[in-house]
Specification:
By secondary structure, the protein is an alpha/beta fold. The chain is globular, with a radius of gyration of 29 Å. The N and C termini lie far apart (about 65 Å). The structure holds iron/sulfur cluster (3 copies) and FE2/S2 (inorganic) cluster (FES). One iron/sulfur cluster binds near residues 256, 259, 260 and 424.
Length: about 950
């Protein structure tokens, strides 16, 4: 009999692959008897795991269910009738008809002897140890009844070594190490970094971090997998050493990136002492990255704004005031502006950092309270082309798969994304699949880590020039069609035949061939053909893409080109395939879903549609404007032109994150009232008249929706530092403005969302508290939809769209001969407001300009030299880093530090359909320069 077990329990060894396929697991059952209990488990299951399923916990040390069994400690021995000796239960798979005994006298004696040897070489400081009460060695000593150690306690293997505290978040105390190698296997199998090894043999064996003197100088990326796997206090969080063990825990969702990892927040009193990834987190399956696992300290950083502030003019000093005074001041300003400049002179920007419920309230306030549709979201500047492109082709503005799907893919094409930095936990899952045999195609101007890293190498890397994505996707499609590799049956059954015929006429034209476009892209035509064949011939081929696809003047075209490619090859509607946008921020999918775009109410329902408006008007008891409102760039342009005068900006630092900083600053300066709601003062608050303190994810209830459309609970673990959660602030402002809102809890907001949004109709907090749900979640799919478009597309028949390549107007010239492209790195997050206030700064203290050695030497630039980067929009300076990741002619930087001014140089160019900025292509000149740029000097002076 298999008992119900807690998903957080350690089952000893991993489930058999494919781990998440219940069909497979059901189809391959084997029956055996363990300690008199019959059990039926899938072929390949270890005896240890099967025993645990019956409730028999076999003692163990070197086994844990996150990594493959290794069989080194010999604690888990069992007896099997008819077999000689005492096999290790962790490495012995079940066989039909086996009769296993896990608790005989002989076994108990053997295990006790093994434990005795371990304890003889282990410090006996249990009472003061950080892992006291949470140590498997301690537990096993107790489980085996060990009371005395005949060999003394003077084992000197590890006892006098120094503790490695080089990593800011965890320490390594080798005196406590039992060399079980769980950490080594976790680093290799779960994280895929291969930073750890066991050095030496026998009694001299010890754990080594890349052969370096300490963890910080090694290849370690601080994901925490080794700390999670360590059964002793050898690898342990420094917060636990400093503060003692936690007293309670609560499950929540990471507030950094769009992977949406599930964590337990551990607290001691009101202090968060650690965050550990949950194995039942469907997005992360027990894994984490340095940000979610360790970089939570920003939430209680002294810089947090805890009191509302107001001022009449942006040159005045701030005045701290009560919530009532701040809200009345803000409401009076908004009403004054509307009376003087008109109904459409004010608007709001919602945040992809905030919860679904908070975002929903913001857009409701704008539409029902401000009486216009001037609401937009930071998704405008990242994935708005995804929403547009996928809606046009497939019928739904979201990715098609769940993350588990990657484990079934045979070929994986990564376009304009850097998962190991931007979406690290997904990056690890992707690398795991590559190590087990899938082939990889990377389309990126830079040689990102995936191109070549330990045990992973791309079959094809297409280092195209920034701005030529659409040429590439057309060349891939042309190859597939011209070589007859398309999936005719899928196209015939699932797609609109007339649109396909029209597209076919276009794509087959010779100007779309790899040979014709090769020079434009700077990529060998033969390599493009190789990539196309690899993708088209795979049984299951998946595309994952990021901002390197969307942040272009043809971002929407490229998204449609990707969807065309997937439909052309039948790679939609199954596991292991699909079109997968890797969403940036934690709730960027949610902020789009919740009606943050000026033309769409929640659930992508058009404001133009009278019936849609009528339903919302009835529910909200108001009249809604039928005409779409301003997008963010329109707000800026209108502000400068004098037609847009007040902005309520929640949780987005537009002055740092949006392109052409000088233009954004001018727009903000031109407004009569800027209300910033944030957890810190930021670049935008320099231009604000009202500062409303925000709340971190630890301080509120709600939900985030990740890149898989998965809606996960966010749970309040501490009270809001400023007294109000963000949804309460918006509600209070709405009430002062006369729009009545009286929600007592975010669950009531979700109930309203579900009532008005067909794709959320069956979403409730009751269900979400049992587990996350992927929308659409409604009567047709009450438990959610992991994979979309299985039998039919949301729009009915899939629509091929002609994707003509139109080169960007941002061209290199003699004056601006290099192309700048931007991205982010693992340790920092976007504008860095959170991560810069943690010890993650150790890994990335400044943004640098990566430049190829050829371009550097042509300009007399050496590594570390200060250089000016000048574009048509502006100038900034950074330190240069010579990097062979770059190709000649292309330079790269990140934008995590405000003083870098990366967006001073990006231009106003944007996607033709959505206005998503063309961040990824800026023509620049780079020259040595010692002094700061004019913009940087002015910023320094005003700071
Ligand atoms: S550090 Fe921990 S996990 Fe690694 S070998 Fe030592 S005891 Fe095992
Ligand atoms: S923290 Fe992660 S990357 Fe670093 S050694 Fe441990 S498992 Fe490897
Ligand atoms: S991968 Fe993203 S969601 Fe997961 S822990 Fe890291 S930052 Fe958080
Ligand atoms: S747990 Fe099986 S040999 Fe260590």
């Amino acid at each position: 009999m298999i008992r119900q077990f807690d998903p957080s329990e350690d089952m000893g060894t991993p489930p058999v692959w494919p781990e998440y396929s219940s069909e497979y697991q059901e189809a391959t059952k084997v029956e055996l008897v363990i300690d008199g209990n019959p059990v039926s488990v899938p072929v390949g299951t270890s005896i240890m795991r099967a025993a645990k399923m019956t409730g028999a916990a076999i003692p163990k040390l070197c086994a844990t269910d996150s990594v493959a069994a290794f069989g080194s400690c010999r604690v888990c021995l069992v007896e099997i009738e008819g077999k000689k000796g005492f096999p290790a239960s962790c490495t012995t798979p079940v066989e039909a008809g086996m009769i296993v005994h896990t608790r005989t006298e002989r076994l108990e004696s053997l295990r006790k002897n093994v434990l005795e040897l371990y304890i003889s070489d282990h410090p006996l400081d249990c009472l003061t140890c950080a892992s006291n009460g949470d140590c498997e060695l301690q537990d096993m000593a107790a489980a085996t009844g060990l009371r005395e150690v005949r060999y003394g306690h003077e084992g000197k293997r590890h006892r006098y070594s120094e503790i490695d505290t080089s990593n800011p978040y965890f320490q390594f105390d080798s005196s406590k190490c039992i060399v079980c190698s769980r950490c080594v296997r976790a680093c290799s199998e779960v994280q895929g970094t291969f930073a750890l090894t066991v050095e030496g043999r026998g009694l001299d064996s010890k754990i080594s971090a890349s052969g370096m003197p300490d963890f910080l100088s090694s290849d370690c990326v601080s994901c925490g997998a080794c700390v999670q796997a360590c059964p002793t206090a050898t690898l342990v969080e420094r917060t636990l050493v400093e503060s003692g063990p936690s007293e309670r825990k609560e499950a929540t969702t990471c507030a950094y990136c769009g992977v949406g990892c599930t964590f337990d927040v551990h607290l001691r009193g009101d202090r968060v002492v650690s965050m550990t990834p949950r194995k039942d987190g469907a997005a992360n399956r027990g894994h984490s990255c340095v940000k979610g696992r360790f970089a939570f300290g920003y939430a209680t950083h002294p810089d947090r704004v805890k009191t509302p502030m107001i001022r009449d003019h942006i040159d005045d000093a701030w005045r701290e005031v009560s919530w009532d005074e701040a809200l009345s001041f803000a409401a009076a300003k908004l009403r004054w502006v509307q009376e003087k400049f008109g109904r459409t002179s004010i608007g709001a920007i919602t945040s992809s950092r905030c919860t679904n419920e908070e975002t929903y309230l913001m857009q409701k306030l704008v539409r029902a309270g401000f009486g216009n549709n001037n609401v937009d979201t930071c998704a405008r500047v990242c994935h708005s082309p995804t929403g547009y492109g996928l809606k046009q082709t497939l019928g739904e503005s979201a990715g098609t798969q769940d993350f588990d799907s990657v484990e079934y893919a045979d070929v994986i094409m990564v376009i304009g994304a850097n998962p190991t930095d931007g979406h690290p936990v997904f990056g690890s899952r992707l690398k795991k699949r590559l190590r087990s045999g899938a082939k990889l195609i990377v389309v990126d101007p830079r040689a990102i880590d995936l191109v070549k890293s330990p045990h992973v190498e791309a079959a094809v890397h297409l280092p195209l020039l920034p701005g030529t994505n659409v040429a590439l996707v057309n060349a891939l499609a042309h190859t597939i069609v011209s070589e007859g590799l398309q999936d005719d049956a899928f196209i015939q059954n699932r797609c609109d035949s007339s649109l396909y015929a029209e597209w076919l006429d276009f794509i087959i034209q010779p100007q779309n061939s790899p040979e014709a476009l090769s020079a434009e892209m700077g990529v060998d035509a033969a390599e493009i053909r190789r990539a196309a064949r690899l993708y088209a011939k795979a049984d299951r081929a998946a595309i994952y893409y990021g901002l390197g696809v969307t942040e272009h003047s043809q971002g929407s075209t490229m998204v449609m080109g990707i969807a065309n490619l997937a439909m052309l090859t039948g790679n939609i509607g199954r596991k292991g395939v699909g079109v997968n946008p890797l969403r940036g921020q934690n709730n960027v999918q949610g902020s789009c879903d919740m009606g943050s775009f000026p033309h769409e109410l929640p659930g992508y329902q058009s404001v133009n549609d009278e019936n849609v408006r009528a339903r919302f008007e009835a529910a909200w008891a108001c009249q809604l404007a039928a005409e779409p409102g301003f997008r963010i760039p329109n707000m800026f342009d209108q502000a400068i032109a004098g037609g847009f005068k007040a902005l309520y900006c929640q949780g987005e630092d537009i002055a740092q994150s949006d392109p052409n900083t000088t233009h954004v600053e001018a727009a903000l300066r031109a407004m009569e009232c800027v209300i910033v709601q944030d957890i810190f003062m930021n670049e935008t608050s320099r231009f604000a008249h009202v500062l409303l303190p925000g709340s971190s994810f630890l301080e509120k209830d709600g939900t985030f929706t990740n890149a898989e459309r998965r809606i996960s609970r966010v749970r309040k673990v501490i009270e809001p530092l400023a007294g109000k959660a963000d949804w309460q602030v918006t509600q209070a402002l709405a009430n002062v403005l006369g729009l009545k809102m009286n929600y007592q809890h975010p669950s009531e907001i979700m109930a309203e969302i579900a009532a008005l949004t067909p794709s959320f109709a069956s979403v409730t907090y009751e269900k979400l508290d049992k587990g996350a749900l992927q929308w659409p979640c409604n009567d047709s799919a009450p438990e959610g939809t992991p994979i979309m478009h299985e039998d039919t597309f949301t729009r009915g028949l899939g629509a091929f769209v002609v994707t003509e390549y139109v080169p960007t107007t941002e061209k290199v010239t003699r004056r601006f001969p290099l192309l700048l492209t931007t991205g982010r790195i693992l340790s920092q997050y976007n504008v860095g407001a959170q991560t810069r206030r943690t010890q993650n700064n150790l890994w990335h203290q400044e943004d640098v300009l990566e430049i190829h050695s050829h371009d550097a030497s042509e300009r007399g630039i050496i590594d570390g030299m200060r250089v000016s980067i000048q574009s048509r929009a502006g100038e900034t300076t950074l330190n240069a880093r010579i990097s062979e990741r770059m190709q000649p002619g292309v330079v790269y930087t990140t934008f995590h530090h405000p003083d870098s001014g990366a967006n001073v140089i990006t231009t106003d160019n944007s996607d033709w359909a959505t206005n998503c900025p063309e961040y990824k292509v800026t023509a620049v000149q780079v020259k040595p320069k010692l002094e700061l740029s004019e913009w940087q000097k002015a910023r320094e002076q005003s700071a």
